[in-house]
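Handout, section B. The chain below has 351 residues.
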Amino acid sequence: MFIGTPEGMPERQGGQAAATGTPHADGPRLLADIGGTNARFALESAPGVIGAIRIYSCTDFPGIVEAIQRFYADTDVDAGQPVLHAAVAIANPIDGDLVAMTNHDWRFSIEATRNALGLRTLKVVNDFAALAQAVPALDVRQRRQFGGGHAQSDGVMAVLGAGTGLGVAGLVRADARWIALSSEGGHASFSPLDAREDAILAYARAKWGHVSFERVASGPGIELIHTVLAQGRAAAQPTDTAAIVQRAAEGDALALEAIDVFCGILGSFAGNVAITFGAQGGVYVGGGVVPKLGERFYASAFRERFEQKGRFDQYLANIPTYVITADNPAFIGASEILTAALAGGGRSAAV
């Protein structure tokens, strides 16, 4: 199912290249951002000029090749200069040639995919590594600070976000470059802070044994939290995450409580990430869930729980937190990573 055609995205501000309008000499480049639910594709025709954005449901295709071929057909790629270089940001660890998605059933060989699509270069990276790589290129219109703190200009940055899963990455300065560090931190063990969260952990442990933060601080996690909070409430009805978010916007007490618990857990997790990375350059929140919560997120316990680390309260209070408000920012990071790979002469690579 074709979901939508966004109008494009702002030209990048800063980063390795500003939008020049001069077409790439070797043709347009394919950029992809693939999560457990949706696959987003775009073409970069010139440095910083990203358009032809399409979003598809992953369940409508047996694999990544078929989804890309559909994108090519919808954008008349074959009618113009062929695509020779591509970067795919995907919600998965990348370790070798085989990619087997954690939150979807796609499995593919990077090299076989490159050959099937006739590409010279296929760079496949973790989606949050790509998102982290985009952060230095964001301007003040593409991020919103909330809470206190002041970023150190060369300090390590951390990026996290809730969607179908829970992504994490870091960003470190090396000479004149920023380098993204992939992470699977979302699978760290969940640790509750109060009786409600104890109940959530007990319910989730009965289902899965090991309970990661991703199980509760993600889109599906909101549904799980709601289910636990609804126990013993006769009027409560099973519902999905989108409906819970909608009911919260309408003032439903149970839905509001579920969202507040989710935001608190996400805040605790973000504080853990900040301490782990030493992220004195700031913590950036992306992903598909938080933007849908609107002002409710900014009024939530996220920042309070972010700072609630005992002897390290003041350390966290000094670290700023931001919500990434740019549309499709992973495309910016994927473009940066692909450009660096091409400058190094690489053919097919994964990090």
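Note. Residues 253-277 form the longest helix (25 residues). Compare this with the example in section A.
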